[in-house]
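Anyone up for a design puzzle?
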C-alpha cells in the first residue's frame, strides 16, 4: 500500500462526498437543458461546475487506486471492456489508447 498522505479509509468518505457533488451537478445540468426551474446559474457555469466535479471524483479515485498500487487507467479500461463483452457491445477501449 502506497498512501503517504492519507489512509484509504479516510479517502472513502471523500469519494462519496465528491460523487454526491457530481450527482448534484448532473441534476442541475439536466434542469438546465430541460428548462426546469431551480437553477440560478447559466448553462456555461453549470457545465464548468460539472467538469470540476467529474475531475474531483477522478482525482479521488486515482488516489484510492494509488494507495493500493493500482493504475486507474488500465483498471477503467479493463472494467469497461469486460462490461462491453458481457452485454455484447462491440465498443472496446484499446490498450494503446490510454
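Challenge accepted. My sequence:
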Amino acid at each position: 500500500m502506497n498512501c503517504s498522505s492519507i489512509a484509504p479509509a479516510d479517502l472513502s468518505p471523500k469519494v462519496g462526498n465528491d460523487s454526491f457533488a457530481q450527482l448534484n451537478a448532473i441534476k442541475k445540468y439536466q434542469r438546465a437543458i430541460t428548462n426546469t426551474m431551480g437553477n440560478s446559474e447559466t448553462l456555461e457555469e453549470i457545465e464548468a461546475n460539472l467538469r470540476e466535479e467529474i475531475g474531483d471524483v477522478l482525482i479521488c479515485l486515482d488516489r484510492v487506486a494509488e494507495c493500493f498500487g493500482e493504475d486507474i487507467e488500465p483498471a477503467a479500461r479493463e472494467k469497461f471492456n469486460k462490461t462491453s463483452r458481457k452485454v455484447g457491445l462491440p465498443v472496446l477501449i484499446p490498450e494503446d489508447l490510454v
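A detail worth pointing out: The chain has a mean pLDDT of 90.
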